[in-house]
Amino acid sequence: MTLPPQPISPLDGRYRPAVQALGDHLSEAGLNRARVLVEIDWLIYLTDHGMFGTTPLTQEQQRSLRSLVDGFDQASIDELASLEATTRHDVKAVEYFIRRRLDELGLTSIAELTHFACTSEDINNLSYALTIRSAVSSVWLPAFDAVIAELTRQAELYRDAPMLAHTHGQPATPTTMGKELAVFVHRLQRVRAQIVATEYLGKFSGATATFAAHLAADPDADWQAISNEFVTSLGLTWNPLTTQIESHDWQAELYARISHANRILHNLCTDVWTYISMGYFTQIPVEGATGSSTMPHKVNPIRFENAEANLELSSALLDSLASTLVTSRLQRDLTDSSAQRNIGVALGHSVLALDNIRGGLGQISLNTAALEADLDSNWEVLGEAIQTVVRAEVTEGRSSIADPYALLKELTRGRRVGAAEMAEFIRGLDIGDAAKERLLALTPARYVGLASQLVDHLAD
């Protein structure tokens, strides 16, 4: 039995509600709307500057043309699809679409300025830059910022919550949960600044980027200045040296940075998942939700597991795009055309992961009793503090202990040491009274250094 038509990608099926906002930018329709915008803006630019004997369009005529962008709807999508079925060329379909509107507006006299001196890539590279920029700024970045905001809130909330650290999976010098979450916030904020600083480049220089056709049409015009002015009028950075295509280096840079952000988030997911398995975080059950199909007691950390998988998929696609797009044979090949149509898929998996992480963080609560119990079971972590104090005392001339490290290694390595045994050991040390009192006042829960104050760096 054959099913009715179904989406192949889970992003367009099961997970569509979480990622559908990207479709307004990185779908085929979103790309076509951007192409219409670029073509119309170029037409208006040429007439505004009186190129080839034209006169500027009236404000009403400009509004009518720009309404094709603002009013880009299902009818526009269907018309372009019909045109492309005939032209077998997506950008040519856009040109014919605009020419029809010019005829309807009584502007047939300037129809030949539609797509004037342009190669398809002149329109495409600007359209991709516009749609990718808007997708990142209005969809991906707000989702990313929501995760940072929730992490920051929890870093502040748990800044004073002492926790046994685990380096190499073994009990280590205590920290606080807030400080450890702040580490992720700091990492994410740093890569966020790099993503926001991305330079979105555009070229607009013809078939092999030499302005040859432009110069043939008007040898006296300053075509480099015109190209620069037009590209920057779209809010993009002009790229003066390219082949037929814009070289996509800015895309490679952006995707590498987002992939880096994905991997930091992946590290966050694995750490939170591990804290949940250790009992450091408890999960807040969702009313009506099933944790396991057979074990009713379970609340599974599926949000973080789902996020891990989607971050891996996103980074795999982004890495592929970053490595593929920077190569084009000689002056142009078409490999980038198929590759760029998957940008929405790559960002979609990242947005889906961000949605799961934010949801997962909102469904956990710190189990301070578990943290305290773990700390109280590992007094041997004070060995670092004791041997460091003894070294200082030896240097100050208040101790004659020959090898402080070896002394503590003999006491603590590979074994548990209780509070009473540790206190007895400290009292027997050959150190000054002030140092001894300082060590006797230490507990694993108090041995967190400046962990709480370090959270203040998030305000930097």
From TrEMBL:
Gene Ontology molecular-function annotations: N6-(1,2-dicarboxyethyl)AMP AMP-lyase (fumarate-forming) activity
Name listed for the protein in its UniProt record: Adenylosuccinate lyase
Pfam families per the UniProt record, alphabetical: ASL_C, Lyase_1
Function: Catalyzes two reactions in de novo purine nucleotide biosynthesis. Catalyzes the breakdown of 5-aminoimidazole- (N-succinylocarboxamide) ribotide (SAICAR or 2-[5-amino-1-(5-phospho-beta-D-ribosyl)imidazole-4-carboxamido]succinate) to 5-aminoimidazole-4-carboxamide ribotide (AICAR or 5-amino-1-(5-phospho-beta-D-ribosyl)imidazole-4-carboxamide) and fumarate, and of adenylosuccinate (ADS or N(6)-(1,2-dicarboxyethyl)-AMP) to adenosine monophosphate (AMP) and fumarate.
Pathway: Purine metabolism; AMP biosynthesis via de novo pathway; AMP from IMP: step 2/2; Purine metabolism; IMP biosynthesis via de novo pathway; 5-amino-1-(5-phospho-D-ribosyl)imidazole-4-carboxamide from 5-amino-1-(5-phospho-D-ribosyl)imidazole-4-carboxylate: step 2/2
InterPro entries: Fumarase/histidase_N (IPR024083), Fumarate_lyase_CS (IPR020557), Fumarate_lyase_fam (IPR000362), Fumarate_lyase_N (IPR022761), L-Aspartase-like (IPR008948), PurB_bact (IPR047136), PurB_C (IPR013539)
GO biological process: IMP biosynthetic process
Lineage: Bacteria, Bacillati, Actinomycetota, Actinomycetes, Micrococcales
PANTHER family from the UniProt entry: ADENYLOSUCCINATE LYASE
Keyword list, A-Z: Lyase, Purine biosynthesis
SUPFAM superfamilies: L-aspartase-like
CDD domains hit by this protein: PurB (cd01598)
